[in-house]
Structure formats: C-alpha cells, structure tokens
Amino acid sequence: xxxxxxxxxxxxxxxxxxxxxxxxxxxxxxxxxxxxxxxxxxxxxxxxxxxxxxxxxxxxxxxxxxxxxxxxxxxxxxxxxxxxxxxxxxxxxxxxxxxxxxxxxxxxxxxxxxxxxxxxxxxxxxxxxxxxxxxxxxxxxxxxxxxxxxxxxxxxxxxxxxxxxxxxx
Length: 169
Prior knowledge:
Keywords: Hydrolase, Metal-binding, Metalloprotease, Protease, Zinc. The chain folds into two domains: 1-41, no CATH class; 45-162, Cytidine Deaminase, domain 2 (3-Layer(aba) Sandwich), CATH 3.40.140.10. It is built from four helices and eight strands; from the N terminus they run βββααββαβαββ. By secondary structure, the protein is of the alpha+beta class. The protein has helices spanning 27-41, 51-62, 99-108, 129-143; strands at residues 8-9, 12-16, 22-24, 69-75, 81-89, 113-119, 148-156, 159-162. It is 31% helix and 27% strand. It is globular and about 55 Å long. The strands form two sheets. The protein has a five-stranded mixed beta sheet with strand order 5-4-6-7-8, sandwiched between helices. A hairpin with a 5-residue loop joins strand 2 and strand 3.
C-alpha cells in the first residue's frame, strides 16, 4: 500500500504512489484522508457542544460508504468524546445491530452518554420504522446501566436526520 500525502495542483488532490510518482487521488483515498483529519481534530476529550459539530463529525466519518455502518460516539457526562466506534457493518440497505454488544461497549469505555449514527448509502437520511424501533430498544437497554441516549443521526450523503431534532427520542 502506498503512503498518502497531500499536494494540490489545479484543484486536484494528488497522492504519491510506492514509486514516488504523484497520481490523482481516488474518491476512496480522499474520504480516507478526510477521516484521518477528523480523527486528529476530534480526539478523546473533544467536546461536542452543538448538534452541528456532531453532524459534521459523523458526515465525515460515514459519508461515502457503499454499505451501512452503524457507529456510536461514546461520551462522558460532560459530552466529551471517549471513543468513536464503528460497531456493525452491513449491506447496501441494512445492518444487524445487537443491543447486548452496544451495552458491552458502553460499559467498556465507561460512557455516560451515547450518540448513535449510521449511514444510508441510498443518500436519503430519513429514518425508517426499523431505525425507530432499534433506537428505542438501544435506548431502553442502555438506560438499565445508566447510559443516556442523546441522539441518533442518520447520514445520507451530505444530508443528515437527527432523531433528537425530530422529537423521536
């Protein structure tokens, strides 16, 4: 695998291959670089003080996947990041999510709160009935161990839908 580096020429992102040549970056390489940048910007302890910050972070992490990815932002009691975890990977239109595994992960990082997120590769961020049922089950399971569910953000391309903003939590 080649080492990626940033360079700009005529608004084109270039990457250096194993032989040291600069070639145009693929969409996947650009998305991977964006994910690395967001990881550096929002490290453990970063405060998620507004829904806009959360959405920006999650769009960068989840946009562009051709399959569903279900993730969680585990937060402390002050809504600072403990850990971002991609918990489950699915197909183009579904991902199996297991509440038991989510609870185990929340306890592992000693989370006080959680924000769920997943992407819709179709580009439509509107929650399905299955998304609503799953979110309620996860919220109930986490409440048993005193972990608050703050939101569930669905990423569809560059658009998002927030359960909290829609009054679904």
